[in-house]
Amino acid sequence: GPRAPLLTAPPAPDSTAPVPMAGRAPKVSVVTLDNTRESKDGDEAKDADPQPLLPPPIATPIPQESPPPELKPAAVPSPKTEPANGDWLNNEEQYVDELGEDEPVAETEGAPVETNDETRSTETPVEAGQEVEAGGKTVKADGKTAPAGPAPGSGSDLRPGGPVPLPDVPASIGGEWRSIGKTQPLTGEDLSAPGALEAAAEKRSFRGEIIVMVANEGGAILAANAVANLRSVGIEHYLIVTNEPKSCELLMNGPWGITCGYTSYLKNHERLKDYQLLNEEGATPFRLWWVRFHFLDRLVQLGYNPMYIDTDVSFRVNPYPLLKGPFAEYSLFAQDESGHFNGVNIGWIYAQNARPNGRVRWVLNQTVTRMMEILEHQPEPLMRWDGQPVIGAKEALWDQHIYNDVLESCAYGEDMRRRSMQRLIEPRDDLRRAWEIEQGYPMDGAPFDEGRVVVNAEDVPLTSRGDPMDLAPGSHAVKFKPLTCYDHFTPDEASKPPEKIAAAPPWLVAGWSGVWGDEKFQGVSGNWNLYPPRVAVAHFVGGLAKQTTFKSLGWWTYGSDAFRKRSLHRLQTELDKSGALAVAGLRAGVDVTDAMEATSLYGAAVANVVRLALAAGRRPVIPALDCSSRWITRGPPGTFLGVRDRLHVVVSSRCDSDSAAGGGGPRQTPGGVVFDQPGYGACCQSVQFDCNEGVISQVDLDRDPRFEALQDDVAYVKVDELLGSGVDEDGLPAVDGAGLEEKLRGPTLVVVELGESARGYGDGQRVPGLRAPDAKQAERVLEF
């Protein structure tokens, strides 16, 4: 590739000149439905049992008060009246809320996120949990004891589909790095306008630290959960950057009043159309990815310590005691994805104490420069390493590849572009290896240097409950590399020792799968269920069905869904008025060894659960999978519950062992894991039949405080009592749509029991289909 130009990012719309390199207790009350429903054996005795040891955290509302004026989003200037320096808005339309009149009211008992009152904390952290054995070690499955009695904003006064107050954070959480109440809100401004980033950083930073996140409208729900997660460990010095004003408004106008700004960076660049990048609401919002490096570069230049995190990153502890203690000598951090310094993941980047004209800033600035070179390359077509024309942005402008090339250039001290112009995922075959040798690239594997860090007892960070993470004080290995880079430094900077990049050890930053390091720290092992946590920061890279996975681990803050534009909102609201329908005794595919056959059986059964629930005018409850199913792939010793099946399930310890959803594991759990206390049970949530709207997953039924009322009004009905004279498409007796809604009217949760069926459903392998639905029932099914 061409030699890099001077270390100066091309002019951008936000600058006038180039920037120089200068808890809940499950309870089931049985309700008899006329003569066709029967009480479930043993429920009365179960209700008399004391509360289980490990209910989930309860969202404690912050006392209500009027939000400060700054929290109200600023009016978006009309494109017709925008001055000349606002050309990026020329193609924008005023944002109009498209939700119906039955949209839940945004005001709740919880105040907005931004609060300057540090005295509000009323909840005392309680250490509680279930002892389990995993990998030869007794640990606790993650959970928390709820305060005695119902709390305002807990299940008693919440409703399905409604808002949930943002949980309070005890004043002791965060220690000296607690920033809650110590930052100022934004007003939805364009962070790429002249001077805007400087002003925003001054408002949003704490002790020179600032955490950057980016989100489009579809990603607002994950961004909201990330905000709640950061607050849980005492952190509020975040800066959310959205792609459009309306994406920011979705966050600011939600019940938590999340502060943010948007960016016009490169908004109207003429080459975006050439790379088919005009639609920014998909999973590849390139412009937002580019602006993160642009902002990181700018923030380092301004003297801040910026951290970038993807919104699928979860802080299990406040990591600053580690970063400022054992890792204080390192100025740039990366998540180790390959074991080499030219193969890092960019979902977590941190720069601290970086010199404004130093090597760390060179890396960030050079990444932006190379992106702009490619974006503005013309007129001849860009060529791949093998001489073929580049096809699309994923080949030409994939920022992780560009960043890794810059890191390799800086480590070896010469311009290198080994991974640029390469397909997103491409095998390194003999032909490509020969090309790398021809280019003169080092073939030593780009290894890190080996070093040590000493973790003192006071450096071990604390969880949101105030407990230390599972990290032994002492000497620990760390991989690092001095950043040499190759030109454009002042004599003063050139005379200083090179800044160093550290590859975060897996106990500092871990990935779900496909990353470097001991698998016991990875989420795919199931060990993210354990408490206290083994990892400080968890990144769901390699994970599937991320919302389901967050919920299965207990890392989801219920209420985050209020920040999603919902396509099923009207239908879901209608169904919630009647309640929900679950099926107990479902064992579809449990004894099958072939994964495809088993998941097909389970999927067909789930589809029929949905149809029956919709015909009954209720929300469908999707049961979890039994973790002992024969088709589920097993893991090596030390794997939680003995399950390691990334492609099909995520293992969880957060389902009720006697859940009304009827799935999961009342049976003995595999893998040598023993729950010493009643209440929680093992279950496996499907990642193939993942649905974040309309349905109620088992873990949601058991843990979401808005569904607590469902558990207080449960009725059971034998499946045979619902069957008509006709058959479904499989030739088995079916449920007639006519009169079904009226027949099941009453209790908020109806559980259809498959066991003891005399008409073909007793083995739990199937759920009866729906026959002859009326027009309204058919309309619901079609809409869903």
Question: Would you mind describing this structure in some detail?
Answer:
This protein is of the alpha/beta class and 784 residues long. Helix 4 links the parallel strand 4 and strand 5 (261-262). Helix 5 (286-301) packs antiparallel against helix 7, helix 7 crosses helix 9 (399-412) and helix 14 packs across helix 18. The longest helix has 21 residues, at 595-615.
Strand order of the largest sheet: 5-4-3-6-9-8-12-11-10
The computed structural class is: alpha/beta
User: Per the principal axes of the C-alpha atoms, what is the gross shape?
Assistant: elongated
Q: Give the N-terminus to C-terminus distance in angstroms.
A: 51 Å
Give the DSSP E fraction (strand runs of 2 or more residues).
15-25%
**What ranges have pLDDT less than 50 throughout 5 or more consecutive residues?**
1-140, 142-155
Q: Work out the number of β strands.
A: 25
Query: Treating each run of at least 4 consecutive H or I residues as one helix, how many helices?
Result: 18
The radius of gyration over CA amounts to: 27 Å
Helix content: 10-25%
Largest sheet: 9 strands, mixed
Mean pLDDT over all positions: 80
